[in-house]
Design brief:
Strand order of the largest sheet: 1-2
Helix content: 55-70%
Order of helices and strands: EHHHEH
Number of helices: 4
Largest sheet: 2 strands, antiparallel
Shape: globular
Number of domains: 1
Strand content: 5-15%
Length: about 70
């Protein structure tokens, strides 16, 4: 399972922040809310150097597009 930074995964940081924002709005379980809160905290701390695994990205997209 590969991990890449947000900077490597997205052409523009706004693409990630929009995806994360949509996931935060769509989070419907305690787990999803905790996941998006933790991801937001990591992003605030590390910015575009935040690492995301393939699994984390899949979960983020699943929640955002629910």
């Amino acid at each position: 399972m590969a991990s890449r930074t947000i900077a490597a995964l997205f052409d523009r940081v706004e693409e990630f922040t929009s995806l994360l924002g949509a996931a935060e709005l769509n989070a419907s379980t305690d787990w999803e809310e905790h996941f998006t809160t933790d991801l937001r905290a990591n992003f605030q701390r590390y910015g575009t150097q935040t690492y995301l695994s393939d699994s984390q990205l899949e979960q983020l997209e699943r929640i955002a597009h629910a």
